[in-house]
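Q: Convert this sequence to structure tokens.
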Amino acid sequence: MLQEFKEFIAKGNVMDMAVGIIIGAAFTAIVGSLVDDLINPVISLFLGGIDFSGLGVALGDGPDGAVFAYGKFIMAVINFLIVAFVVFMLVKAVNSVTRKEEPAPEAPSGPTAEELLAEIRDALKK
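A:
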């Protein structure tokens, strides 16, 4: 069983997946900081500092009553859209940098003159 586990871990796709998860976690921190520290303040500047996270409806009386905090949901959706757009732009930029120019397909080549002459000679011999 230990040998099977070693073989499983040593497979390339498992290691690739582990590296992808680690890089993804680091990338998440970068994108989160970009959105929270750079993009949201600019958007807030243009919207006059509007923050929906405080919006909600109290569902019960007293200090222990539940709150239907729809404002936090609105902010989560807005942040998701911003993060998704930033990730889209980053992936698009990386793809444009890494995209290799594909060679033009070659025109189908016909037989050479020598091959044609050999075919004619062979046909005349028959």
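The mean pLDDT is 81.
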